[in-house]
């Protein structure tokens, strides 16, 4: 599927949801089949999250027990994911970006870009960022196309089938540590398969991205 306007392709690399995708003929079916197991905590107050930027792995832990171990995509060297200790302080399942997205020009016509360049008379619809979990102003976990290499503008991207599980396991107030590496990289993180590289996959049409369907394209989340 091709984007409706070439102008959207030109700015797509700046978009949080679609920037890992390019037009192509990859196997979307294989990408959509990817999933990982998750376990609900005994005490949600004891849940904490650890992220390794080098391994591009996220560990949702309850004490020493892993509840979810998932590959993620992190920021590039020029737009790195911030390191340090944080707290998840905002969760929004249906979040859209406030600075970039799509412009409804009317009559089924759309273009894309940054809000500052909004065409006169158009309606702005932000880039979808499903299952947003913010830990620093402008930085958060969210659903997005994933690559094997760092590819984001600093946010932490999750596969769409795993994101709702992460969202259910954490809460506002969950502590988060982001570091270059984590001890779990050498143990529970070693053999977790990554999803297929989304690079060859085609972008979704704008007519789909501006609807709420994009928030529910995942499998129904299940827990052990």
UniProtKB/TrEMBL annotation:
E.C. no: 2.-.-.-
Family: Belongs to the YkuD family.
Protein name stated in the entry: L,D-transpeptidase
Annotated active site: 142, 155
Organism: Rubritalea spongiae
Molecular-function GO terms, alphabetical: transferase activity
First-level EC class: transferase
Pathway listed: Cell wall biogenesis; peptidoglycan biosynthesis
InterPro entries the record matches: LD-transpeptidase (IPR050979), LD_TPept_cat_dom (IPR005490), Transpep_catalytic_dom (IPR038063)
Domain annotation L,D-TPase catalytic: ranges: 47-179
UniProt entry tagged with the keyword Transcription: no
Keywords: Cell shape, Cell wall biogenesis/degradation, Peptidoglycan synthesis, Signal, Transferase
Signal sequence bounds: 1-21
Highest taxon above the source species: Bacteria
Chain ranges passing through the membrane: none
């Amino acid at each position: 599927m091709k984007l409706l306007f070439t102008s959207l392709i030109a700015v797509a690399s700046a978009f949080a949801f679609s920037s890992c995708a390019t037009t192509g003929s990859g196997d979307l079916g294989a990408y959509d089949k990817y999933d990982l197991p998750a376990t609900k905590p005994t005490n949600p107050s004891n849940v904490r999250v650890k992220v390794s930027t080098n391994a591009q792995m996220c560990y949702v832990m309850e004490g020493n027990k892993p509840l979810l171990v998932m590959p993620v995509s992190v920021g590039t060297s020029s737009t790195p994911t911030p390191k340090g200790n944080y707290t998840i302080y905002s969760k929004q399942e249906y979040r859209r970006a406030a600075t970039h997205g799509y412009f409804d020009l009317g009559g089924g016509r759309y273009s894309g870009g940054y809000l500052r360049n909004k065409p006169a008379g158009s309606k702005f619809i932000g880039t979808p960022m499903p299952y947003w979990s913010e830990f620093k102003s402008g930085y958060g976990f969210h659903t997005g196309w994933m690559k094997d290499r760092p590819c984001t503008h600093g946010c932490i991207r999750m596969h769409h089938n795993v994101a709702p599980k992460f969202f259910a396991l954490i809460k506002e107030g969950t502590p988060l540590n982001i570091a270059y590496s984590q001890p779990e990289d050498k143990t529970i993180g070693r053999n977790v398969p990554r999803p297929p590289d989304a690079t060859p996959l085609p972008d979704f049409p704008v007519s789909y991205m501006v609807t709420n369907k994009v928030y529910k394209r995942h499998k129904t989340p299940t827990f052990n």
